[in-house]
Input
Amino acid sequence: MSIKDIVAGIQIRRSRNRMEPSAFSFPDDLRRPKNVLVCLPGNLRELTIVKQFLPTISDMFKPANISLMSMPGINVKDIFPRKGFQILAPTMDQTTWAGLPKKSYIDALQGYKFDAVLDLSLEPTRFISGLLLNFPSALRIGKGNHLGRPFYNLEIKTKFLRDERNIYRSLLETIDLLRNSSSDRSRSAGTTV
Output
């Protein structure tokens, strides 16, 4: 464990302790997001798999504005289509020494008023962990057995362990099932499916 890991861990713990979770109504809040942030993985293999699911994500959250955010220093503008998506590519200048997003970058992102954040990174990263904690009023969706509360308020577990394509398919199918389920089963913050 490096000094950067220790410093990032302390800063993330401080943010976790300050975060106040919001209550959500499932599936109603899944049906009506206006601005969705999709956190892309940092691995090239996973990026190419996620690219195949972009039409599904677009259809699922229609008519919301969808922004795709890459990991810092990774340029995905040549890989991902610009049609229908806004691509956010943070630079290394927008991260702290410990790898967390800088306050100025968080403030810029909060200007987009994201009401849903979909984390498609299969490995925990300091950057995304720090980012998720700065959107307490957004619906934050991620893979189960990954980060958990308070990072996600909808954590979706999948039976697939290593097959990335099936993990993403399972995540998106579960979100779609929840969106299309009856609204008489409302759940509060911190739901695990």
The first strand starts at residue 35 and ends at 39. The two ends are 32 Å apart (CA to CA). The helical segments are 3-18, 28-31, 44-52, 54-60, 103-110, 126-132, 164-180.
